[in-house]
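Field reference: sequence -> structure
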Amino acid sequence: MARLELLLEWRQQYALYGVLLYVASTIFVIYMSMGHPDYAVWNGLFWITQLFITVNTVAKSFLQESQGRMLYFYSLAGAKEFIISKLLHNMLLMLLMSVLSMLLYFVLLGNPVINIFFFIGLVCWGGISLSLVFTMLAAIASKANQNAALIAIMGFPIVLPVLLILMRVSQTAFLHVYQPGLWKMIGLLGCLDLLTIALSLVLFPFLWKN
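Structure field:
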């Protein structure tokens, strides 16, 4: 199923190019309005950009599926196999978008990062975390008459803790001093990711039957 998702994404390259254009244009507008901001503003803008990129990239994964295609998927695989393939596909897609947006930020808005390897790892992890949350939300919204507004309504209280943790942890990459409680926040982020995966595996089979 994961391979099928990648093949379908490759055949619909216009959608991927549209997301790439959205990423580049958003960061360019930020550059035109902000120039080279200090590291605190840079960090906040980066993760807010990541949030909107995830919404535009991952949320469409279920909402764009027609009823006929969903019936076809239903005949190919079970609920857990399907949701796992969606999670893996969106994780890979967000890894690509996260690295690309980070590179564009470095080129256009400067590079105030001190611990570059820590920041790169956190960007990849953050992209995965955000993709997990919005994949689960998109799956629920797709069963509510394709109501995309549900993603915003349900997503705010769920994604806000993830986003705040990412912003807080990433500040370490801009400083020479050790940040207290760093590993506790990293552990909390990992627990939230595991909880999201577990909820997806438990809840989606009930949605799949409908």
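Note: The first helix runs from residue 2 to 11.
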